[in-house]
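ingest -> validate -> predict -> emit
validate: passed (alphabet ok, no gaps, 373 aa)
predict: started
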Amino acid sequence: MSAFADRRATRVVALALVACAAPPAPPAAPSPAAPFAAVVDAHAATPDGAPVAGVPTFHSLGAALAAAPTVPHDAPWRVLVRRGHYDEKLTVDRPNVTLVGESEYGVVVTHADVADTPGPDGHPLGTRGSWTMRIAAPDFRAESLTVENAFDYPANAAKPDSDPTKLHNTQAVALMTVTGSDRAAFVRVRFLGYQDTLFPNVGRHYFRDCYVAGHVDFIFGAGRAVFDHCTIVSRDRGDTVNNGYVTAPSTPATEPYGFLFVDSRLLKERPRMARNSVALGRPWHPGADPLANGSAVFIRCWMDDHIGARGWDRMSSVDSVTKIRHWYEPEGARFYEYGSTGPGAVKSPRRRVLSDSDAQYYTIANVLGDWRP
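emit:
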């Protein structure tokens, strides 16, 4: 028995992830004739909730979501979102909501909060309050739209440290999931930000044909998430050595699955971006939590040359009680690859590769459990 298989059998170290041999086909695009419970149209000439062509029409997503049923229901409550920029800070707390945009580029849900933004109580929002969209209910689905945190990270970084307007805690989340969320699905959705773009932190997530852009820890959290045929773009910080980290999982050690990337592409924002300047991930232990054991696995992914021999990196966290800083090495986390290709698929002792036999144990279906999005 291999050392990896032995760890799997004893459960001393939680299990790595791999994909099934034949990933499911992408869901079909919705028919224009598909029924919708509501329409969002920023340019509607009617009052909020008034029917247009027999369908209640709202000027904002927030107004439409407030009209959704509050109790569980079998059929999805489908909302068609017309083209437009919607500057809103949204919480989805109603079950079985589906948002369908007219265009993934033409429908943009955007807001510009950041960790240092003062909240209603005058205190900074923090990372967990900086979201543009927050999912707090089961069976959410989004298709063909963009979710963006519009905080201008490059402009802020260009300010001198002596500038009193310069922010120093620049985490800015586009989308996050919180308690109550499970079975969240995203198809042809673009997630745009810089630091901490996407925070799949609670429950199960399925991303198909999605686009995620950022630079520091821009896919992070404790949830289970499958990225199937997605495009993951590292933004250029202009550093010749360190342009960030793709992932920062905080998977509980008791969970066998964390982040799984299947048949996806890891690209760099611009051709001149430095080679070997981005790590696939680093282990996040929130508050130095000893029970976190991050899991991120890349299966059959194409990688550009911004990914290099170091593969993964270390990360520190400050104990929330003792205030002591602890460092966590990538070798202690569940970081693996299998079948990587492209100029960034560099063989290195730091980049652990699953064997064929180990890879056979894990499928997308196992990661998602009894849920078939």
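The helical segments are 3-10, 61-66, 153-157, 356-359, 364-368.
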